[in-house]
Amino acid sequence: MSRGRGFTLIEVLVALAIVAIGMAAVLGALTSSANTSAYMRDKTFAQWVALNQIALLRLSGQMTPTGNSDGDTEFAGRKWHWRREVTAQQVPGVVRIDVKVRPAEIKGDDDNGWFTTVSGIQGDAVGVPNGYLPDWGAQTLPGLPPASGQTGGKLGAPTIGPGPTWLGRHRCAGRHRCAGRLGEPGHTAAATAATADRATD
């Protein structure tokens, strides 16, 4: 009676090494994915912190002086460190605001270690109106003649007048006589469009 041959110690060790290498690769991929997700979450929070800083400056109602400043703020249960750089632009009364943000526990210098940089514009420059009002031309409705006394339109002064509301008998393209206002039953689109003149008895 023969005995079955089993695995040798070398074969078992090789199999365990292959399994360990495969598990290490899987764990490495999972760790990398988790780190990427955490970084993207922190980067999004940092952008919101920077946007909040720019919004606060705009809502203050005062022009932000040029120069650099630093500070810390609480957001989403964490402390964030921000750096604000305000520079003057070629347009008088306009400044550019660059806000850099990173978590407070992450150390870095003025140029490195930041999770995001958000830029914004603040200014008090107001353009002087030139008083030009364009001529928009006469405004008419499709299929209807221009209203009497209608002239070219001006900005802020609508000139579309009411359409004809003739009472009594009139001539229609539908070759029938009817009484009432345009658009009542009995008028087709072609008939309504051809009522520029009245019928005579």
Name the descriptors.
elongated; 24% strand; 4-stranded antiparallel sheet; Pantoate--beta-alanine Ligase, Chain: A,domain 2; 2 domains; 201 residues; disordered C terminus; alpha+beta
Could you name the CATH topology of the largest domain? Pantoate--beta-alanine Ligase, Chain: A,domain 2
**Weakly predicted, low-confidence segments:** 152-171, 179-184, 187-201
Structural class given helices, strands, pairing? alpha+beta
- Estimate percent helicity: 25-40%
How would you portray this structure in words?
It is a single chain. A hairpin with a 5-residue loop joins strand 7 and strand 8. It is built from 2 helices and 8 strands. Helices cover 28% and strands 24% of the residues. The strands form 3 sheets. The chain has a 4-stranded antiparallel β-sheet, with helices on one face. The protein is of the alpha+beta class and 201 residues long. The N and C termini lie far apart (130 Å).
